[in-house]
Amino acid sequence: MSSWVQCDSVDTDAMMIGRSLRTPEVFGEVFDRHWDSVYRYCRSRAGDAGEDLAAETFCLAFDRRGTYELDRPDAGPWLLGLATNLIRNHLRHSDRGQRAVERMKSRRVRRPGRCRHRARRGGPAGADPGAGPGRDPRLRP
């Protein structure tokens, strides 16, 4: 005779999230159930940043578990929604950074000694004519 009892009912994600409000460690079971799918989802959309985004998804979910609608038994769609928003923000910020780098690459690089503020004749406005080309008399040697 076996000493364990088989249960027909399995706790839903909603039940575990509800219990995690009193006992935070219970949220670990939600993590265990959904990590693989959230990780694959993030990795497929954000590449190498996917693992960090998946981890951030669960941190955010833990922080927001009090707002979870407990009438929804499966937390998977909620977690993927959180992941989607994190991925979107990540891609938006990385795209913005890449565009800034591209803008900087396309600008002309000035050669040393060529100051764009120097007047064509006689140096900067108000400069001592004997101070030499491009030398501002307000600057000390």
Q: Percent of residues in helical segments?
A: 40-55%
The total strand number stands at 0
Low-pLDDT parts are 1-8
User: What is the distance, rounded to the nearest whole angstrom, between the alpha carbons of the first and last residues?
Assistant: 97 Å
Strand content: under 5%
Summarize this, please?
The chain has 141 residues and is an all-alpha fold. The chain has 4 helices and no strands. It has a domain at 13-108: Rna Polymerase Sigma Factor, Chain: A (Orthogonal Bundle).
Give keywords:
single chain, 141 residues, mainly alpha, Rna Polymerase Sigma Factor, Chain: A, disordered N terminus
Task: Walk me through this protein's architecture.
By secondary structure, this protein is mainly alpha-helical. Helices cover 52% and strands 0% of the residues. It contains 4 helices and no strands. Helix 2 runs parallel beside helix 4 (76-106) and helix 3 packs across helix 4. The longest helix is centred in the middle third of the chain and has 31 residues, at 76-106. The chain is elongated, with a radius of gyration of 30 Å. The termini are far apart. The relative contact order is 0.10.
Lay out the secondary structure.
Blueprint: H1 13-20, H2 27-46, H3 50-63, H4 76-106
Helix pairs in contact: 2-3, 2-4, 3-4
